[in-house]
Structures are given as C-alpha cells and as structure tokens.
C-alpha cells in the first residue's frame, strides 16, 4: 500500500497532530538515550485514548505492520528503538498521561501509561501517600514503560519490583482487542493472573495502556547513612545486622566500590565525608514510628565494634541526605566520562555476591589486562551493576560472555532490572535453559502469532512459518 494512504488512515484515528512523519522530528524516536541503537521509523503515532490505541493496532495488524511501543526513552537495552528498515510504526503513549483516580483509603492509583513517574509520585504525595517506585530517570520515565520493563530502582529491597505494585492492568493485545482488568483488589484468585504476562514483556505481547498501582503510607521519619566497609563480605554482615536492628524499615542498601566513588570525585567533584575505603554502603531507613534514629545508631555501634565497618556518618539534614545519595546517583555519569565501559546489570543470590565479585574480578583481570572494574548496585536485593572500563579495541562480546557465564554459574540472572530489549537477546538465548526458552516462545506465538509486537526485542524474530 502507498505510504500516503497509511498516514492518512492513521491520522483519521489519532488526528493530524497525532502522527509524526518529519525526519527531524522522528530522530528522538529513532535513537535510544545511550546512543547505542539507531533505527528508522516509518512514523510515530501518538494516540489520546485506549480506544485509539486499539484502532491503531488493528490497522497495523491488518496490514502486517510492526509496532514499537515507546515510553520515556529511558531504557538501557534498546527496547523502544525501531529497526533500520523504515517500515515499523513507533507508538508513543505520551498523550495518554492522566491520573484517573486516587483512592486514599484503599491506597491505590489508577493511571494512564503515558504518565511520567515523578508526576504520579507527586500526586500520591498530595494524597498523603507515596508511590514507592524510585529510580534516577523518574523525571522522564513513563508508567507504561516502567511496567513493560518491570523496572527496579533503589526501593526494591522494601517495596519490590514494579510488578509487585500492580493490582490491575488495561492492555491492548496484538490483534487490537482491549482487555481491561483495572481492579483494585489485594486478593483476586479467580483464574490466571494474566496481567503478569505483560509486565516485563517490553511490549512484545501487547501494549499496556493503564494500570492500578498499589500505593504505600508516607513515612514520618527517614535516616540516611554512609558506612565504610573493608570487603563485600563485611557489607553483607552489615546488611544482616541492619535486618536485625531496623528490620522492615530498611528501604535501601547500596554497595559502592571505592573505585566507583573515586570516579565520582574525579569527574563530578563530589567527595565522600569519610576516608578512603575499598567499599562503602549507603543505607536508608524510614518509618512512622519514633526511635528510628536510635535504632540506626545502635546498628552503627554494633558493626563498628565488630569490625564489619571502619567508619560511618549519619545525615543530619535533608541536604546531607541528598548529598549522600548524589554520590550513588553520580556513578554512572562519572563512569561515562572516564571512557568506554561495558555494562552488566546482573543479579546473584545475596549471599553469593562476594564470591561472584572475587571470581569476576580475577577472570576479567586475566582476560582483559588493563581493564578496570566499576562495581556498584543494590546489594540488598542481589543486583550488581558490574561495569568494566576497557580500551576502545577490547572485545565487548567476549567480555559479556565471560561475565554472564560467571553469573549463570552463581545461579544469577544476566538482567536484574534493565530488561533484555535488543541488547541482550542473543545472550538470553545462550544463558537460559532450553525448556524456559521454549515456554517463552509458546507464549509469544500464542499472544502475537504474526510477530508484529516489538519484533526482535526479548525474543528472536519469529515469522508466520514459525
């Protein structure tokens, strides 16, 4: 069919302003924010309602045109970037950004997929509650993209991954049918929990258009602290002590290497309030009960006395809290200024973190002389960002395989929170058990038999013959 006819049909659904065809305007849709992947979209379509999403999907499905769902373009795996064929339609939900309702008593929020996370957080705060999904890109990331990638962040330790906050979901399937399960129930055991198929599927099974999210009570007191620790083993002893002293009030437990904070000091001009150390942990706890600070001080006394920490500081104000968190949040940018780095968003069982780090460091040093490891992450939930700064000539594929093989050997995952996208498709196929891959393939073919929903992401391309 002619290009002009397709554009006219799309405009008939979403309006003149809802279809982007200008090459310059399409550039934002063609490149991921890390500039690792670049494609060429046929056009971008911005519907204003779930009904319009369904109409667009039906129109494209009827013509065999692939759709690439697009959120805030903050993903780290190229999951929202079209291929280079110039045939794919990017579907952005940016104009579907309403917060439909907040139930303060039930602690729920119904929100459209295009709503920016920070906007949803602020609305929850105004209602006296909180939306405990928190990550560095919250000023740009959209709810649909967060759920489609099952985003993690710094609060996973206490509040879980994004999927744990979802009570109900509204989706448009690959054939353009609207399936609405926007229920606000904490208990719903009536049949298959189908919404979980779409959470973390990165738009390969259908398009999330709205969700009911479970909110949480706001905390009256918050304590943030930084500790210097000699080894990752000692860090886990501090984690164990934190569980015993402050229990469920523990929001975050971030492990940062001394090397990572040296990069932050060199490139960002930010220095720790503590003396140099091989490792540091950033701890945050919150509660509405009095005595939280006393409990954290008791934790400090214990870990310092036992030698699991060598020094520590507790923030005395919100400004100091922000300064401590800025150290953690600046690591990635500082790393990018240092040179080429190969990033590994991996997870291993929490108790296995020290052994994994020892083995990986030794293996990387032997195979890639001159490389430097920059390790940091959410140690409280087993997620380590194991990044390696290498020369421009280093074999990135070989390094990825080396690290991922060690992750698998330790019973871990090659993607803890960033998703598969197009970046890790081949590695997922290599590292996952054949039985798991076969089951995933059956799900994909059942829900998207034509293979038109975000093809080439998460799963290899499928064809009608498959």
TrEMBL record:
<dbReference type="InterPro" id="IPR036318">
    <property type="entry name" value="FAD-bd_PCMH-like_sf"/>
</dbReference>
<keyword id="KW-0274">FAD</keyword>
<protein>
    <submittedName>
        <fullName>Putative FAD-linked oxidoreductase</fullName>
        <ecNumber>1.-.-.-</ecNumber>
    </submittedName>
</protein>
<keyword id="KW-0560">Oxidoreductase</keyword>
<dbReference type="InterPro" id="IPR016164">
    <property type="entry name" value="FAD-linked_Oxase-like_C"/>
</dbReference>
<dbReference type="InterPro" id="IPR016167">
    <property type="entry name" value="FAD-bd_PCMH_sub1"/>
</dbReference>
<dbReference type="InterPro" id="IPR016166">
    <property type="entry name" value="FAD-bd_PCMH"/>
</dbReference>
<dbReference type="GO" id="GO:0016491">
    <property type="term" value="F:oxidoreductase activity"/>
</dbReference>
<dbReference type="InterPro" id="IPR016171">
    <property type="entry name" value="Vanillyl_alc_oxidase_C-sub2"/>
</dbReference>
<dbReference type="InterPro" id="IPR004113">
    <property type="entry name" value="FAD-bd_oxidored_4_C"/>
</dbReference>
<dbReference type="InterPro" id="IPR006094">
    <property type="entry name" value="Oxid_FAD_bind_N"/>
</dbReference>
<feature type="domain" description="FAD-binding PCMH-type">
    <location>
        <begin position="37"/>
        <end position="218"/>
    </location>
</feature>
<dbReference type="GO" id="GO:0071949">
    <property type="term" value="F:FAD binding"/>
</dbReference>
<dbReference type="Pfam" id="PF01565">
    <property type="entry name" value="FAD_binding_4"/>
</dbReference>
<dbReference type="Pfam" id="PF02913">
    <property type="entry name" value="FAD-oxidase_C"/>
</dbReference>
<comment type="similarity">
    <text>Belongs to the FAD-binding oxidoreductase/transferase type 4 family.</text>
</comment>
<dbReference type="InterPro" id="IPR051264">
    <property type="entry name" value="FAD-oxidored/transferase_4"/>
</dbReference>
<dbReference type="GO" id="GO:0022904">
    <property type="term" value="P:respiratory electron transport chain"/>
</dbReference>
<dbReference type="InterPro" id="IPR016169">
    <property type="entry name" value="FAD-bd_PCMH_sub2"/>
</dbReference>
<keyword id="KW-0285">Flavoprotein</keyword>
């Amino acid at each position: 069919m002619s290009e002009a006819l397709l554009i006219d049909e799309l405009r008939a659904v979403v309006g003149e302003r809802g279809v982007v065809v200008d090459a310059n305007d399409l550039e934002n849709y063609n490149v991921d924010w890390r500039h690792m992947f670049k494609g060429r979209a046929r056009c971008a379509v911005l519907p204003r309602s779930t009904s319009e999403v369904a109409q667009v999907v039906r129109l494209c499905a009827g013509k065999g045109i692939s759709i690439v769902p697009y959120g805030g373009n903050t993903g780290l795996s190229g999951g929202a970037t079209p291929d280079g064929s110039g045939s794919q339609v990017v579907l952005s939900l940016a104009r579907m950004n309403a917060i439909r309702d907040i139930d303060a008593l039930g602690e729920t929020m119904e929100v459209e997929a295009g709503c920016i996370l920070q906007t949803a957080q602020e609305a929850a705060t105004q209602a006296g509650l909180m939306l405990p999904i928190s990550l560095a890109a919250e000023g740009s990331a959209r709810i649909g993209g967060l759920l489609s990638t099952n985003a993690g962040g710094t609060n996973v330790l206490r509040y879980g991954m994004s999927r744990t906050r979802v009570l109900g979901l509204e989706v448009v399937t690959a054939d353009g049918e609207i399936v609405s399960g926007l229920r606000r129930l904490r208990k719903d055991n009536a049949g298959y929990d189908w919404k979980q198929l779409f959470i973390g599927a990165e738009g390969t099974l259908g398009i999330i258009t709205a969700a009911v999210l479970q909110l949480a009570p706001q905390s009256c007191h918050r304590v943030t602290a930084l500790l210097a620790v000699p080894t990752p083993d000692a860090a886990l002893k501090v984690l164990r002590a934190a569980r015993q002293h402050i229990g469920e009030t523990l929001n975050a437990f971030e492990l940062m290497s001394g090397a990572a904070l040296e990069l932050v000091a060199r490139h960002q001009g930010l220095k720790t309030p503590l003396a140099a150390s091989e490792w540091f942990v950033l701890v945050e706890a919150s509660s509405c009960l009095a005595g939280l600070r006393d409990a954290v001080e008791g934790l400090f006394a214990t870990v310092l006395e036992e030698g699991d920490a060598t020094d520590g500081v507790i923030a005395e104000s919100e400004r100091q809290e922000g300064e401590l968190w800025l150290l953690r949040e600046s690591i990635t940018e500082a790393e990018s200024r240092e040179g080429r780095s190969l990033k590994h968003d991996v997870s291993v069982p929490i108790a296995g973190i020290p052994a994994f780090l020892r083995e990986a460091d030794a293996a990387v040093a032997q195979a890639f002389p001159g490389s430097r490891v920059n390790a940091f992450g959410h140690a409280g939930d087993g997620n380590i960002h194991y990044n390696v700064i290498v020369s421009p000539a280093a074999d990135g594929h070989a390094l990825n395989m080396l690290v991922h093989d060690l992750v698998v050997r330790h019973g871990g995952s090659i993607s803890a929170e960033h998703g598969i996208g197009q970046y890790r498709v081949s590695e997922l196929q290599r590292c996952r058990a054949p039985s798991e891959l076969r089951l995933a393939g059956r799900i994909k073919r059942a829900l998207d038999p034509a293979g038109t929903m975000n093809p080439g992401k998460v799963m290899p391309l499928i064809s009608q013959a498959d």
